[in-house]
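Hi L.,

As promised, YolD-like family protein:
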Amino acid sequence: MDYRKIPMEELDSNIPEGRGMIKWAPFATMPEQFEKVASMIEDQVKVERPVLSDDRLEEMNRILKKALHDKRSIRVEYYYDGFRFREDLKLIQVDAWSMVLIGQPMDKSDEEMIFISFIDVLDVVMI
């Protein structure tokens, strides 16, 4: 018999609650252990920074120059803290001195700016 098919009026409202959170109390005495286990789980998901070839770096440089000259939007895939991210940007500046891409996200407000280091850029595609 499936309780989900029984009308609410016919269900027994006198359901025992059980011990609740008391059964988990012994584990809550060591919050450092929770933090360590959580960081270990997060570290398993992280990936290493990929190494790009010189040809790929030159191609991305050409795409960035063309996008900046033609005032076109780009999709940047970048690496940050063990994870890969993708962002659609309106490219504003390629700062060679500080080695940073500066752009505005396509889906957010005009005041927000994103700074992505050259070292972290994995792929650039014109949109």
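The two ends are 56 Å apart (CA to CA).

Thanks again for sending the construct details.

K.
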